Amino acid sequence: MSNSSSKGGNIQSILAAAVIPIAIGIGFLIWKFIMGDPSGFEDGDINKNPLPNHIMATMYKGGYLVPVLMGTFITTVVFSIERFITIGKSKGTGNIETFIQKIRALMADGNIDGAKAECAKQRGSIANVVNAGLDSYRQMQADKNLDKERKLLGIQKELEEATTLELPMLSKNLVIISTIASIATLLGLLGTVMGMIKAFSAIATSGAPDAVALSTGISEALNNTALGIGTSALAIIMYNFFTSRIDSITYGIDEAGYSIVQSFAARYKEA
User: Deepest in the core among 64, 77, 87, 101, taking most CB within 10 A?
Assistant: First the structure.
């Protein structure tokens, strides 16, 4: 079981690592063949100025950092979709609060079978952890050799181990989104600085100030900043959205685990 899950995790890691270069490759193709379409330039020559109000051609002039920025944007979208699906499945089929309330009521009555049936209906990370806790609950009930404190510690340990197995899958790939949120703006600014250097160098070489050429160069350079800030903003929004979803799932796990432990403590005292 652990070997198969380990292999599955390795495959997912390889696929995740492959997304970034593939996304940059797609970004390069968009930059080269769509943004760099000759019809968007004067006289159909990509070495000349872009046509007025032709955004794609203007972005093409941003240079080789444009496909990199496009790649970070595509990567953010891909991992956001992947996390949305994964965390949605981890949440389970029903409402978390309703599920926890049902577990509390069933555990108050000592109905372990009913609680396990609810876990089978709910599925997801919370249900998996609760199910592991219920199995430990039943084992501790049958064990006549351990005292109350050791039984409670045994249930808590099982809940902690099950939680440790579930949580890494929830936060997987979020580090990539958070990294993009940090570096996308910096890449955009780098592209802008490089574009500004290029624009001012061209003016210095010509020997005469050209307001049109300068404004065109600045416009091309600022496209990198816009793309970088847009990508960073999307990454920050998605990262915060997913972390809030994970926090709600973690809170649900803690609440359900606490209910199981408290139920055992109360019923063991009665026995």
Answer: 87
Q: Are 186 and 227 in contact (CB under 8 A)?
A: no
d(CA 211, CA 207): 13
Tokens of residue 249, six digits: 């799932």
Alpha-carbon distance of 115 to 102, in angstroms, equals 8
Output the 3-class SS for the chain: CHHHHHHHHHHHHHHHHHHHHHHHHHHHHHHHHHHCCHHHEHHHCCCCCECCCCHHHHHHCCCCHHHHHHHHHHHHHHHHHHHHHHHHHHHCCCCHHHHHHHHHHHHHCCCHHHHHHHHHHHCHHHHHHHHHHHHHHHHHHHCCCCCHHHHHHHHHHHHHHHHHHHHHHHHCCHHHHHHHHHHHHHHHHHHHHHHHHHHHHHHHHHCCCCHHHHHHHHHHHHHHHHHHHHHHHHHHHHHHHHHHHHHHHHHHHHHHHHHHHHHHHHHHHHC
pLDDT score for 183: 95
Amino acid code (one letter) for 76: T
Which has the closest alpha carbon to 224: 12, 27, 44, 8? 27
Question: d(Cα 30, Cα 70) in Å, to the nearest integer?
Answer: 8
User: How many CA atoms does the CB half-sphere of 185 hold within 13 Å?
Assistant: 10
Residue 72: name the closest of 28, 32, 33, 13 by CA.
28
Give residue-wise pLDDT tens across range 222-266.
889 999 999 999 999 999 999 999 999 999 899 889 889 988 888
